[in-house]
Amino acid sequence: MFTDWLVEAYYLRLFLQLSKIPHYTTLQKFTDRINITMLDRIISSFILFTGTRHIFAGIDATGFKIIYASEYYTNKAKLRKKYAKLSIGADVLQQLVCSVKIRRAPTRHDNVDFKPIITKISKIKKLSIVVADKAYDSEENHKLVRENLHGFSIMSPRYQQVPVWKTAGKYRKEMKRGYNKILYNQRNKDETIVSVIKRLFGEHINSILVRMQNRELVLRCIAYNTHRMVNLLAIIGWFLRSLL
């Protein structure tokens, strides 16, 4: 579809200095050969263009369908549906994806992805606040953010019916006593990011091989960040024109 669209995108072809439109298999070969580490660096580089000094991070996870049979056949034959679990760490103020982690669901709990994602984000810029829902409620996660990465963590505590004095951990007890709901509600922007990714690019994965499925999801996050940056630049341009 992209190569078909390039036929009409004359000025984009001039900008890319394309002497001819590449065959669609060129993009497939590129996806197969590019290093996944390079794709991760591309994702993390977007936040640098915003000029932000600290990252207000939010983390969330969602599933993408990777079964190739039709929905009708799957239900009729009672096949087990397969999913790829995409965990994203994003700057919720800029609504840009900073780090991702992909695995096959539902083999492990979302909490195992917290440390690698947040640690990777902290290497891009310093953390100010980290928000997450109760799936990531863990004293170790609080300690990682507050003591090791020098940020402030807000995670909705599990087991609300358990009194504070029975709750394990200093920071989890602090969450039980109360936390800033305005800051915590910024976590909803993670769900907005996931919703936009699925709305723009779909919730089904087209690739067959596992490594290609992973690259496809990472490339969707890069495409989302590009979409978001274009919108941010358009908003800034409109604001500057209104001042003149």
Structure description:
The structure is a single chain. With 244 residues, the chain is of the alpha/beta class. It has two domains: 1-33, no CATH class; 37-243, Ribonuclease H-like superfamily/Ribonuclease H (Nucleotidyltransferase, domain 5), CATH 3.30.420. It has eleven helices and five strands, in the order H-H-H-H-E-H-E-E-H-E-H-E-H-H-H-H. The chain has a five-stranded mixed β-sheet with strand order 3-2-1-4-5, sandwiched between helices. It is globular, with a radius of gyration of 21 Å.
Summarize this, please?
This protein is of the alpha/beta class.
Set down the secondary structure blueprint.
Blueprint (H helix, E strand, L loop, with lengths): L1 H5 L3 H7 L7 H10 L2 H14 L4 E12 L5 H7 L5 E9 L4 E10 L8 H9 L3 E7 L6 H10 L3 E4 L14 H8 L3 H4 L3 H14 L8 H34 L1
Parallel strand pairs: 1-4, 4-5
Antiparallel strand pairs: 1-2, 2-3
Count the helices. How many?
11
**Strand line-up of the largest beta sheet:** 3-2-1-4-5
Low-confidence stretches: none
The best one-word shape is globular
CATH topology heading of the largest domain? Nucleotidyltransferase, domain 5
Given this structure, which CATH class of the largest domain is correct?
A: Alpha Beta
| Strand portion | 15-25%
Oligomer: single chain
Structural class: alpha/beta
Largest sheet, in brief, is: 5 strands, mixed
> Roughly how many Å is the radius of gyration?
21 Å
Instruction: Give the rounded overall mean pLDDT.
Output: 86
Number of domain units: 2
Please give the alpha-carbon distance between the first and last residues: 40 Å
The number of distinct β-strands equals 5
Which series of helices and strands comes N to C? HHHHEHEEHEHEHHHH
CATH architecture of the largest domain: 2-Layer Sandwich
Fraction of residues in H or I helices: 40-55%
